[in-house]
Specification:
Elements (H helix, E strand, L loop, with lengths): L4 E6 L6 H11 L8 E7 L4 H8 L4 E5 L16 H7 L3 E4 L2 H6 L4 H13 L3 E6 L3 H5 L3 H12 L5 H4 L3 E4 L13 H18 L2 H6 L1 E5 L7 H5 L6 E4 L7 H6 L4
Parallel strand pairs: 1-2, 1-8, 2-3, 3-4, 4-5, 5-6, 6-7, 7-8
Helix pairs in contact: 1-2, 5-7, 7-9
Amino acid sequence: MARRKIVAGNWKMNKTPSEAKALVEMLAPLVKNDDVDVVYCVPAVDITTVVEAVKGSNVAVGAENISDKDKGAFTGEISGAMLADAGVKYVIIGHSERREYYKEDDAFLNAKVKKAFEYGLIPILCCGESLEQRELGQTIDWVRLQLKSDLKDIPAEQAATMVIAYEPIWAIGTGKVATTEQAQEVCKAIRDLIAEIYDTDTAEKIRIQYGGSVKGASAPEIFAQPDIDGGLIGGAALTEDFGKIVNYNK
Ligand code: PEP
């Protein structure tokens, strides 16, 4: 069975609740595509507004982070229970900005992946190499290392439902897109790793996105690759171009 494409916007730390509502309204007529799952991953403070604004549409809402704890004295944290109750379906875990600026390591991210599943949320788990690692030829070894730790003790039934986003750090927000060959090569290596950790059935089901400066003009070629099941989109997710990315096959 063919995997369904999934295109997720990562809004990062952009848009106040009222701006978020306006963006959802602007994008509403542009992001209809029955062939694609569409997700807006939004700042925590925008979740309630965006959940309300996308009601009755094809768009699901994601969070950009989740606590590794359940509840209690963890000032500033947001729990899986809170996200699920607010209507969130997906959660980004391990974005390179969180790994780099907030020092989130793989053991911590593994705890977050477990928490997401505990609360019925689908992780969009990010991985990817730096420019230096790519130039040293370490890309695939590095991504395998990241994912092996991030997926530790996650059962196959859960892994099959999740999304992995391959995001070369040097391509995020830089305007530099990986070539389709580079993107496909790593996404295939990720699928091979999933088959190795679990089995081929899980590897066939898991969805693998490419992320890094994807635009409406580049999406068709990237998403046509056999192991690329859609994209995680930063900058372009805040513009009309997101509609073109979602409708890459029209
Ligand atoms: C991202 O932040 O996940 C991302 C892919 O950003 P951009 O599309 O702006 O490179």
